[in-house]
Write a structure and sequence with these properties.
single chain; mainly alpha; two-stranded antiparallel ribbon
Length: 222
């Protein structure tokens, strides 16, 4: 299922979800980044230096949740769950867990659970059309897209131009997710995060039918 999980439509849905999660946690849950752990670690260091321990925990817990999400995702990967593929299991778990977030009153725990989901996603879906990419952050995509674009300018190989376009497209999808989150926040409040559950459920459906089509194509070859 690796090729199916690298499709552009799946990358689009996941990047939209990633941007929406970050907007939700920042706007509605105390200015914490669900995805961008560099920012959280920066604030963690600042508040640690000044001895503001409540704020230290405010940023420490999401970092720990993100790390735990990566840990659990890789455990599931190595276990190779059957008959349901581990990536489908991850998507189902993400969609379900995010449905719980609006009902968690404390931002500390709500952000930790959201970051846990982000950690699972960033570890599970790491390629787009064969190229390394991320759906929950932009810095790696921005670097890779710019490198691909410069390589195209120098070598005139259109494969690099298509690669650059894919990276920049995913960044735009992430931004669109953030814009959607900002637009929904005043209307739907803490329930804004359920939009991510809908996007992740759609991702599960796309991955399921892509895998099914792939299996049928293989059977037709016999």
């Amino acid at each position: 299922m690796d090729e199916e999980s690298e499709s552009l439509i799946l990358g689009t849905l996941l990047a939209l979800s990633g941007g929406l999660m970050d907007a939700y946690s920042f706007i509605l849950r105390g200015h914490v980044f669900a995805n961008a752990q560099t920012g959280n670690i920066l604030f963690l260091g600042i508040y640690l230096c000044s001895g503001q321990w409540e704020q230290v925990l405010h940023y420490l817990f999401p970092v720990a949740g993100f790390t735990a999400g990566i840990f659990i995702s890789e455990l599931m990967h190595l276990s190779r769950l059957r008959p349901v593929h581990w990536k489908q299991t991850i998507l189902a778990a993400e969609a379900f867990l995010l449905l719980l977030v609006p009902f968690i009153p404390l931002d500390l725990f709500a952000n930790s659970l959201t970051s846990f989901v982000c950690g699972m996603q960033v570890q599970t879906f790491r390629k787009l059309k064969g190229h390394p990419f991320a759906t929950t952050m932009c810095i790696g995509n921005l670097r890779s897209g710019t490198v691909s674009f410069v390589t195209w300018l120098c070598r005139k190989d259109h494969r690099h131009l298509r690669s650059a376009a894919a990276y920049y497209y995913v960044i735009l999808c992430f931004v669109a997710g953030a814009v959607l989150g900002n637009a929904l926040a005043p209307v739907t409040g803490l329930y804004t995060i359920t939009g991510c559950s809908l996007l992740l459920t759609s991702s599960w459906i796309v991955l399921h039918f892509q895998h099914r089509r792939h299996v049928l194509d293989e059977l037709d070859q016999f």
